[in-house]
Design a protein that fits this description.
76 residues; mainly alpha
Length: 76
């Protein structure tokens, strides 16, 4: 069975890997220390809702960059 500190370390690493901000990570870690898991779940649900926006924005930037490269190559 994992030690409590191991569980907290795993939580921290998962929050970082999921792309959570430093502020959100810190908040979740503080909430975990006081067993406020429902509040953490609520915060993570909000984070999950925002992720597709980031993906969409990134794709738009890639598309613009591809178009720019294509346009430049037409003229050289």
């Amino acid at each position: 069975m994992a030690e409590a500190s191991d569980a907290m370390g795993m939580l921290l690493q998962n929050l970082i890997d999921a792309g959570c901000s430093k502020e959100l990570t810190q908040t979740c870690m503080e909430l975990a220390k006081t067993d406020q898991w429902n509040r953490i779940l609520s915060l993570l649900a909000g984070q999950r809702i925002n992720l597709p926006n980031s993906v969409h924005d990134g794709q738009k930037q890639i598309d613009c960059l591809d178009f720019l490269v294509y346009s430049i190559k037409k003229y050289i």
